[in-house]
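As the work plan foresaw, the team has encoded backbone shapes as discrete tokens. One protein thus recorded appears below exactly as we store it.

:::
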Amino acid sequence: MLSAAELLAILPYPDIDPVAFSIGPIAVRWYGLAYVAGILGAWLLAERLVARASLWPNDQSPMTKAALGDFIIWATIGIVIGGRLGYALVYDIDRTLADPVSVFEVWHGGMSFHGGLAGTILAMILFSRRHGIRTWSLVDTVASVAPLGIFFGRIANFINGELWGRPSDVAWAMVFPTGGPLPRHPSQLYEAMVEGLLLFLLLQWIATRTPALKKPGQVAGIFACGYGAARIFSELFREPDANLGYLTGGWLTMGMLLSFPVVIAGIWAIWRARSATAPHVAEPLERKGGQE
């Protein structure tokens, strides 16, 4: 039970309007701007990475800036469709079944990282095979900058006042507008720092200061291990979705359950990258009979 002094010490939640600005009848929300900032920022950083040929196998960049620009469109589609479907089918299935149209209401929030990851992986596989790019090098490129998007996305979750943490008496606990009267961990900010900023800085250092990119798949594996471990840690402070709760034993959450395979996949990718003798370069489909 919190004392009166402790209650007064609780940080007030900065009730920010989720609408950044309006243009006539069109409301531009911080949530949407966060995705735009994350994608554009990741794109600019990825361009600098692929421009440094010495970082890649055989001192050859895996793709041109033009090809990377084309891929951003594919990646955006994969993130939005995968992320939204993942959330609707895993975290909000009851509402989805009752109102299928709600799947398209992305402006209200509700995006699953694991769903967005699946959509992006599919986009990378299809794009790399179509354009004759090493799939693993494309995955490495995306993985090295992906935490930047995660950072902005978690900040948007905080602004929306959603995905708040468990009840807590820490000095920085906050009472969220939709979280009831109890002060809670601002877990969105924890995730922004651990899954986003810290992982981003680590991967940038590894990608630019070590020969990790010369073994395709290694950076992707480190990202998967880092994100999965960071997400499992963050879930210790995050309130489980009300419709799911704890899955077993009063501690396991859906976010944890979905992150364990990500860590395992990351370990496999690192092992595979270090065991490989030479990078494989896929041929463009145009060289295989001109198929489209």
